[in-house]
Amino acid sequence: MSVRASGAGPAEPAEDLGAALRRATAQLAEAGVPSPRADAELLAEHLLGCGLGRLRALAVMGAPVPAGFWDLVSERTRRVPLQHLTGKAPFRHLVLSVGPGVFVPRPETETLVTLALEWIAAQPGLAGTAGSPVVVDLGTGSGAIAASIAAECPTASVHAVELSELAHAWAERNVALPEVGGRVRLVLGDLRTAFPDLDGAVDVVVSNPPYIPAGMVPREPEAAEHDPELALYSGGEDGLELPLAAIASAARLLRPGGFFAMEHAEVQGGPLAARLRADPNWTDVGSHRDLNGLPRATTAVRKGSPRVEELGP
């Protein structure tokens, strides 16, 4: 005969997945995480290896909490980036590998890929299967921009440079994705001096250089405490040292009529556009807003007449 200890009540039922997601959401919200429910679900998805629909079905059915879930929630409450915990960062049509030592790509940077691809598509000599645009990504970081352009424009020849050895290692993994098809030439080096063999022969230069002034600290703990300083901070009080270096490299690399697109801080759009308009190397300077309506990218065209062979019959 079994005997229950005196005063002992019934055992507490184990917490199921639905209850765990609700409790995790509350903890993440208290920690200031901007999207607590989505993050809780993404952490559970990562551990279960399932999609969102399946996860929510499991939560309704009272499935058990996956092992390691609360460890990941604890890390996220300390504002460790979600992408560092899952090791993945969606970017356009790709899922990139990311982690400590590399800047986590943001959705607003996808605009640079759109601008480059739309410009290529509008050029009679570059669009379609007959065209072979040459594209350079200055300061590629995780390789997000270079890999996306190569994946979405299979005829492009893409070249990317990164200064950080850690970021370069992550970029190596991402440009090796099957969707990219081995069409990215990745080098370890400085965007100021990269690819001298391509001087005057490039159709498109894109760049998301470090642009935060040295004295400023990002508001989000995920960026301030976990993104590498080399990817965040540019020289000078205005943070324009590396953006201006990217402009100089673009002017060197682009052929006459070539296209340049660069991401920057919202307060830098006006000064950068003014400098481009005052520079005799550039024409057709334009500003482009992000999803929040903030000026996030500037484009320009390398001044000069295209070579005769590019004009066609």
How does this model look, in words?
It is built from 13 helices and 11 strands. It is of the alpha/beta class and 313 residues long. It has 2 domains: 17-78; 101-311, Vaccinia Virus protein VP39 (Rossmann fold). A hairpin with a 2-residue loop joins strand 1 (88-91) and strand 2 (94-97). Helix 1 packs across helix 2.
Cα radius of gyration in angstroms:
24 Å
Which second-level CATH architecture of the largest domain applies? 3-Layer(aba) Sandwich
The class by helix and strand makeup works out as: alpha/beta
Fourth CATH level, the homologous superfamily of the largest domain: Vaccinia Virus protein VP39
For the report, how would you describe the main beta sheet? Answer: 7 strands, mixed
Beta-strand content: 15-25%
Domain Methyltransferase small: 134-211
EC number: 2.1.1.297
Function: Methylates the class 1 translation termination release factors RF1/PrfA and RF2/PrfB on the glutamine residue of the universally conserved GGQ motif.
Protein name: Release factor glutamine methyltransferase
